[in-house]
């Protein structure tokens, strides 16, 4: 009975080997796509952190500044990027602040915040899409 295989073992073992290779390739593709997604998510969280941290730091700084002082543009330097800001006065006590985030060779990200001097805090923060 064992000698009457007539070429059965080779096709079965070949199909098992091909199925194993195919499943490994699928798992490898999923792993690569997950790694790219994780890297992209990390970059987005880092951008949000840098911008929000800059907004909070500038809000604290503006609360300490006297009303008659002129507001100068500036920047905040982080470990992997720099946030620069400039301010324009919209009304008597309302300022629009433009933040530009540059991280490495990525495209700069621009966001805007509105600061109310009477309230002493930022009233709105938006990112430009």
3D architecture notes:
This is Competence protein ComG. Pfam families: ComGG (PF14173). It comes from Bacillus infantis. This protein has 129 residues and is α+β, with helices and mostly antiparallel strands. The chain has one domain (9-127): Pantoate--beta-alanine Ligase, Chain: A,domain 2 (2-Layer Sandwich). The chain has one helix at 9-64; strands spanning 74-77, 82-89, 94-102, 109-116, 121-127. Strands 1-2-3-4-5 form a five-stranded antiparallel sheet, with helices on one face. The model has no long low-confidence stretch (mean pLDDT 88).
Concise synopsis of the structure shown:
The protein has a five-stranded antiparallel beta sheet, covered by helices on one side. Helices cover 43% and strands 28% of the residues.
Number of helices: 1
The CATH topology name reads Pantoate--beta-alanine Ligase, Chain: A,domain 2
Order of helices and strands: HEEEEE
| Proportion of residues in helical segments | 40-55%
Structural class: alpha+beta
